[in-house]
Every structure is written in structure tokens, then in C-alpha cells.
UniProtKB/TrEMBL annotation:
Keywords: Hydrolase. The keyword ATP-binding does not apply. It comes from the Bacteria. This is Amidohydrolase AmhX. It comes from Levilactobacillus zymae. One of its GO terms (molecular function) is hydrolase activity. Residues 174-264 form the Peptidase M20 dimerisation domain. InterPro entries: Amidohydrolase (IPR017439), Bact_exopeptidase_dim_dom (IPR036264), Peptidase_M20 (IPR002933), Peptidase_M20_dimer (IPR011650). Pfam families: M20_dimer (PF07687), Peptidase_M20 (PF01546). NCBIfam families: amidohydrolases (TIGR01891).
């Protein structure tokens, strides 16, 4: 039977504040990593730093036949707030870290309560959806029987004192693209190949993509830049495209059609080249992991605290661990905490008293 664990509330608040004061962007979480290492040293928990990037992996109760993973993201966002550029934890990652540190603190003091080896991943660069793959490529983690994660949720999705046993993130892709053409005088445009015209054609093709599904999906151009002078046909432009789909299969179909559109425009003096292709897979539901998470939620918040998963248009690279086969099973807790007005909004607030849901279990994984 699932049994809630007792944690030090004051230490959670201290960690939350200290990590908030150290907010750093992807792969630059140096002070954050140092603080996490300091806290693990205080707890006597062994850990490994990644050799060529920020973040670390802590290990408790090593050598057991079952390996349980617990992951938290550690990066923040650079944003303009109150008239100046700042780095802020407007996605709540400092709350995630504080909660996970509380879980580590408990099991460091009560190792007999652990049903296996616990690997705690303090992962960099979630906001750029590149950190999880870097962790996997490091080779430090190894296979996991089950992996748990967590994320605070907007009040519009999950109410306070409630939680969902799986955060049903969608699949997202970002294309970073260069389009090249042929320059010419603006008075003789027929002598050139205007990348703006080509981009306009491609953007319209993106809008015409249709998939045979009732599930939501989208292809959205989010950045475009071309030209330096008002009287010259530009021969180079760059743009970014955001793709979103409910499932990984739908994302594959969406990408196929996006590539077809790119190939159709790449003719003559116009060439479109892909500079980057960043993927964040959709959640891969696992009944056993979801059931265990649901039991934990009910044990702490009661039957009314467990709510059905709420569709979201957000993504998270947490799902790479299952997508790449490193985690046999996984699920992510969606935690309601009175969060308003929304994630990634500078100045967003939530009630930290609602984030005390821990993932302790004395009955297995």
C-alpha cells in the first residue's frame, strides 16, 4: 500500500528561494548545479556531475534489482520583466527541484523505505528540449525500470489540491531553416530569385497541411528574417517553424508533409536547407506507472484530489527517456497549485503550500 512520506516544509521553502535566486538558462546552470551538489553533500548522497555540461545524477540505495528514476528540470527562461531583461523560473523549475530534494532528503534518512535503487536526474536544458537527449548520450544514467517526473500546472488545467497521474504532453518539433535565392536590383526583380516570395509560398503550403485526424495539430512559422536594403532582392533568409501534434505517430505524419512542402519550394535558384530539427516527444502512456502515480496522489490528496488528465498544448523533453527506450515505463505528475496566469509568463505565481505532494512509496515501484 502507498504510504505518504513526511518532509521538512521549511527546507523546501529554503531550497525553493535559493534556487529561484540562482535562475540560469539552458546549459548555463552553473550556480544551480553547485547548490544542488552542496545539498547532496550535506545529505551524504553520492552523485555524478556530467563531464561536459551542467546538471548531475544522484544515486541512493545502489545495487538493487529494480532501478527507479526521478527527474527534475533545472533551467530557467530569459525574459523581459518589469522593464528589464531577467532570468526567471517562470516555468516553476525551482519548485520541481525543491520537491525532488525533499524526496531525496527523506530517502537518504530512510533507505529501507526505498523499493530499489533510486536515480535522481537533475537535468539541464529542458526549455530548449535538448537536455534529456544529452543526459542519455552521456551514458551516466543507464536503464530504468520506471521513471517519474513532475510539473506544476496552470490553474486553468489542474485546480489547487488536485493532481493528474499523467501530464499528457504533445509532441513538438522546431525547424531552424535557411532559404537561399539570387540577389538582384529591386527594379529588375526578374533577374533574381526572391527568398521572401519563396518563403511566402512555403508558409502557405504549411497552412494547407491536413492530417486525417480529429486530434489538434499545428504548423506555425514563428520567426522570419531576410534582406538588409529596401532596394535589393534578398538572396538569403532564415526562419523557424513550430510543429505540434497530439501523438508521436501524428508528428511523424506532420513532419512528412512539412518536408514535402519544403521540397516543393526548393527549385531552380531557390534552395531550402534545414539547419536544426529539435524534437520533444509526446507522452507515452504506461498503465502501470499511471496507476502507481494515481495511488500516490490519492494517498496524499484523497480521492477528490486525483483528476483526469487535461489536454495540453505543451511539451517536455522528459518523454525522451521512454521514447529512446531508456525507461521501460514512465509518467509525469501534473500538480495543481493555484498557478496563475500561466507558465512562461513573467511574474506568474502559485501557492507553494500546494506543492507538497511527494512521490514516496513503501510498496514497490
Amino acid at each position: 500500500m502507498i504510504q505518504p512520506i513526511t518532509v521538512n516544509d521549511q527546507q523546501i521553502y529554503t531550497d525553493f528561494d535559493q534556487l529561484g535566486a540562482r535562475a540560469e538558462v539552458a546549459f548555463q546552470e552553473v550556480r544551480t548545479t553547485a547548490y544542488l551538489a552542496q545539498r547532496l553533500d550535506e545529505l551524504g548522497v553520492s552523485y555524478q556531475r556530467f563531464p561536459q555540461m551542467t546538471g548531475l545524477i544522484a544515486t541512493l540505495n545502489p545495487g538493487q534489482p529494480v532501478t527507479i528514476g526521478l527527474r527534475t528540470d533545472i533551467d530557467a527562461l530569459k525574459q523581459v520583466y518589469q522593464g528589464k531583461t531577467q532570468v526567471l523560473h517562470s516555468c516553476g523549475h525551482n519548485a520541481h527541484m525543491a520537491i525532488v530534494l525533499a524526496v531525496v532528503t527523506y530517502f537518504a534518512a530512510h533507505p529501507d523505505d526505498l523499493p530499489g535503487t533510486l536515480k535522481v536526474i537533475f537535468q539541464p536544458a529542458e526549455e530548449t528540449v535538448t537536455g534529456a537527449e544529452k543526459v542519455i548520450q552521456s551514458g551516466l544514467l543507464g536503464p530504468l525500470d520506471v521513471l517519474y517526473g513532475l510539473h506544476v500546472c496552470p490553474d486553468s488545467e489542474v485546480g489547487d489540491h488536485q493532481a493528474e497521474a499523467i501530464l499528457p504532453d504533445i509532441a513538438t518539433r522546431t525547424y531552424w531553416v535557411t532559404i537561399t535565392g539570387k540577389t538582384a536590383h529591386a527594379g529588375r526583380p526578374w533577374l533574381g530569385a526572391n527568398v521572401i516570395d519563396a518563403f511566402s509560398t512555403l508558409n502557405e503550403r504549411f497552412k494547407q497541411i491536413q492530417l486525417a485526424t480529429d486530434s489538434p495539430y499545428s504548423v506555425t512559422t514563428t520567426m522570419f528574417q531576410a534582406g538588409e536594403s529596401s532596394n535589393i532582392v534578398p538572396d538569403k533568409g532564415t526562419f523557424a517553424v513550430d510543429l505540434r501534434a497530439r501523438t508521436n505517430d501524428l508528428m511523424d505524419q506532420l513532419q512528412d508533409q512539412a518536408f514535402q512542402a519544403i521540397r516543393a519550394v526548393s527549385t531552380g535558384d531557390i534552395q531550402v536547407t534545414l539547419d536544426g530539427n529539435d524534437l520533444s516527444p509526446a507522452a507515452i502512456p504506461d498503465d502501470q506507472a499511471i496507476a502507481t502515480m494515481g495511488q500516490a496522489i490519492t494517498a496524499v490528496l484523497g480521492a477528490d484530489g486525483l483528476v483526469a488528465p487535461v489536454p495540453t498544448q505543451g511539451g517536455d523533453d522528459f518523454h525522451f527517456y521512454a521514447y529512446d527506450g531508456l525507461a521501460k515505463r514512465s509518467t509525469m505528475l501534473g500538480l495543481g497549485c493555484g498557478l496563475t496566469p500561466g507558465l512562461h509568463v513573467p511574474g506568474m505565481t502559485f501557492d507553494p503550500d500546494y506543492t507538497g505532494l511527494s512521490l514516496g512509496s513503501k510498496s514497490g515501484n
